[in-house]
């Protein structure tokens, strides 16, 4: 085994003098490191293995960090982390206080842009390139965007402006024909055509060489000559969307052939106009299990390297699994139910629904905005669309929820997956804002069951409502309650008053109900009489229940795994104020900060939402209340 080149790399400067074979050796070492680390930590291995050569070539050709390389999402950039001084921290990736799974400006000066959501790179990079020009600065700007992210409207909003401004910037399209699942849509098909068109590249080069060889005209005839060249170009070459939009198109180039990549990148770098480099890569490249099962290896947990088997402890069905099974059950009885995902068939488990009802299932690509408005159109025309979407990604479709769904009061069901803390993906993916941003919008109703069984009941009931509804549920396994029985009816808008209590009533949302029951046990042991309400509904609030507990109890405490500001507790507080009900209220939830990656339990503890911390706080508060004379 040759000596390690990787160990000597502190920054890209250290390999800019390498020859091709050294670079290839480096790529292999980086690849091995990604595999051995993610096998232990889990993470975005597939995309990262596919982008190893691409990242080496970028840092080789560009003078980073002076030149800016912007990565879309950032999940594919593990090689970038390893090569920019983070090799020895790499094993901490996605772990508490370790490296983020995405790019972070505080981690490295080479991370010039932070993301987690798709298709922001082009707009961010264009902003940098325009600022550079206005400030007369010399650096180059390149961005890397996947074919999946190019299904997002936002990418095309940026392409539109870039093609118009003709700003100097390089757009690397990292085309592996995969989103998380196989990429979908007409544009994806177009990219496939572009890279597989037989002889297209050769023909293109020959025709361009021919046109270039035409005599250069001088003076007033020059412009006419150029236009004639343009016309001929368009007349004889099959249209290329990028060129039509004003980009110079380089490619397709093999994204695992470092020599070709570097050659093409150098040529592209020296073009003073916007450029697209179309790079063909393979997801999971170099690790057989990830090449063969790209969906499973998009972002797996820990796995066994030799077999590629996932190291998973047997757990209860996940909320997503129960959601999809329930939807199938309901769809068997109701032909009007249709399901939508924005590029997350595996994550939302709608792939199961797809298998049963292929014609009633739509993967719209990474296009949450379109998905919401598409659902509005379906609902307008007699169907019952269910848009299964992670809480964090619904953020992108806010105006569509407000303007198209809620304003027209259409019966769209938003099945909000990953509501609450999400763990390893961290700050950009926490599902802790949706109540706040949905609750203010007229017509929509919002509910969350205490477990997967209640989620089933809420889903069924929601599909009978005449208006938009959001049903939230958390990431990961449910509590293992029975989900095979027929779905029981639930009274819409009604909370479940589990225990009554004179001293304090805990109003809990979602699985926090179980925490509340634990808190109650602890406080009862201290001699307090504590009530527990499973709130279920954030909107409408169960006003009868609120009136009742306000009369029965001395104090109220709300519990939720959501931002405190604007959440369920805020709703309760607003209601009490509006009804001039004077009762001590304490709201428990998440603070006004972005919460990083790390185990959910750790953050629940840190933000005092564990049963232990809540009991401590409640005890303290009850003691304080006892010393305050009644007003
Ligand atoms: C707005 C948004 N929706 C969904 C996702 C979830 N997601 C993460 S990676 C990914 C696929 C991206 O595909 P592509 O851009 O081709 O990159 P690749 O993983 O193939 O390198 C998706 C859908 C996201 N990050 N952002």
Automatic annotation (TrEMBL):
Enzyme class of the recorded protein, top EC level: transferase
Classification via Pfam families:
DXP_synthase_N, Transket_pyr, Transketolase_C
Q: Name one GO biological process term.
A: isopentenyl diphosphate biosynthetic process, methylerythritol 4-phosphate pathway
Recorded superkingdom: Bacteria
Domain Transketolase-like pyrimidine-binding stretches: 317-481
What EC number(s) would the UniProt record show?
2.2.1.7
Q: Cofactor binding mode, per the note?
A: Binds 1 thiamine pyrophosphate per subunit.
Q: What SMART domains is this protein classified in?
A: Transket_pyr
Residue ranges of the TM segments: none
Record's GO cellular component, any one? cytosol
Keyword list, A-Z: Isoprene biosynthesis, Magnesium, Metal-binding, Thiamine biosynthesis, Thiamine pyrophosphate, Transferase
* Positions annotated to bind thiamine diphosphate: 75, 116-118, 148-149, 176, 287, 368
Q: Does the keyword Transferase apply?
A: yes
Protein residues bound to Mg(2+): 147, 176
Q: Which reaction does it catalyse?
A: D-glyceraldehyde 3-phosphate + pyruvate + H(+) = 1-deoxy-D-xylulose 5-phosphate + CO2
Pathway assignment: Metabolic intermediate biosynthesis; 1-deoxy-D-xylulose 5-phosphate biosynthesis; 1-deoxy-D-xylulose 5-phosphate from D-glyceraldehyde 3-phosphate and pyruvate: step 1/1
Q: Name one GO molecular function term.
A: 1-deoxy-D-xylulose-5-phosphate synthase activity
Instruction: Indicate the family of this protein.
Output: Belongs to the transketolase family. DXPS subfamily.
Q: What does this protein do?
A: Catalyzes the acyloin condensation reaction between C atoms 2 and 3 of pyruvate and glyceraldehyde 3-phosphate to yield 1-deoxy-D-xylulose-5-phosphate (DXP).
Summarize the subunit comment: Homodimer.
Record PANTHER family: 1-D-DEOXYXYLULOSE 5-PHOSPHATE SYNTHASE-RELATED (PTHR43322), 1-DEOXY-D-XYLULOSE-5-PHOSPHATE SYNTHASE, CHLOROPLASTIC (PTHR43322:SF5)
Q: What is this protein called?
A: 1-deoxy-D-xylulose-5-phosphate synthase
Taxonomic source organism: Sulfobacillus acidophilus
Lineage here is: Bacteria, Bacillati, Bacillota, Clostridia, Eubacteriales
